[in-house]
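Sat 14:20. Reprocessing the chain from the morning session after the first attempt stalled halfway. Input below, unchanged.
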Amino acid sequence: MAKPLKTREIREMTMAEINAKLVDLEEELFNLRFRNAMKQLDDALRIRIVKKDLARIRTVLREHQLGVRKMASAATEDKT
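Finished this time. Tokens:
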């Protein structure tokens, strides 16, 4: 089972990595919900973990949009 993402790890990712991870997690959540509806899901806790990871990613993206906090990749681009 994959471990939950930490906010620090998300901020160290590039925008392309974050967007790819966002798509992967949304797809995984869809599959988990589908398997849960079919009563074939072994680990129902995984749904909660994926939802929280999605929320963390969206929060970091929103912080970046508002200029509250810059991501690691954006901070290095500004210095060059």
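Residues 15-37 form the longest helix (23 residues).
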